[in-house]
Amino acid sequence: MAQVRINGTPVGDGLPCFFIAEIGINHNGDINMAKKLIEVANAAGCHAVKFQKRTVDVVYTAEELAKPRENPFGDTNGDLKRGLEFGLEEYREIDRYCQELEIPWLASCWDEASVDFIDQFNVCCYKIASASLTDDALLAHTRAKAGNRPVVLSTGMSTLAQVDRAVEILGKNNLVLLHTCSTYPSPYEEINLRTMLTLKERYGVPVGYSGHESGLAPSLGAVGMGACIVERHITLDRAMWGSDQAASLGPSGVIRLLRDIQFLETALGDGVKRVSDKEKEIAKKLRRVGA
Fold first, then answer.
1. Distance between CA atoms of 145 and 115, rounded to whole angstroms?
2. Taking Cα atoms as reference points, which of 249, 239, 176 lies closest to residue 212?
3. What sign results for the dihedral spanned by CA atoms 218, 219, 220, 225?
4. What CATH number is associated with residue 235?
């Protein structure tokens, strides 16, 4: 049975779902808001929180950064990207606070320098975003830095041939694939949860789900289909300013989803057909023959 260990917790087929609360850039460049989101995730029972790390001038072209875009940090897309990016001081505080609350953290690194930056904190595992799946050099660098730690790869907006190439570079050892639809929020008709089964059969590694939908149903469906990891964006308020807020779960939504995942896992059982003692008593009352 394929499995990995994230911060000592076994993750894989037949094991309880590992829930990653994606804070991403929903902190809006404010470390205090980031800490509040960590608190929300911890109180809800999430297993880890995730951020995003970019070297802005490497990930985006000068043309893209110069595009006009009104935002709280200025008038260009570059002002926005730089305003949302945490530096060393903020990540030291994130690391300290997560240790205080005893919740592990990780980050999606969008370039090699960001991988090196995050590596100084000895995170529990590495995440590669769907947008980076075709970046061969970044995949190889991430695997080299991760060592024996798991690499979690999202597969949105990617063909099977592209996933094949990424898996070839990363190797199947300590690898988890996440099925995802990379539209925000994701239309239900495009989510295609059964792709999880395709990935599991094709690659023989643990498979999970990264959801960007509004609501809870697809995430619960993914757990019912055996997702070993579920990742969802979280926010303090879905109506807040920010590109990812509408595709995120508020505090009550996170709590409800974690609760329902536990209920669902209990209800799934072990697949062995049996008659419970309570059912036997009902049978005595209702059956004319064979009770």
1. 8
2. 249
3. positive
4. 3.20.20.70
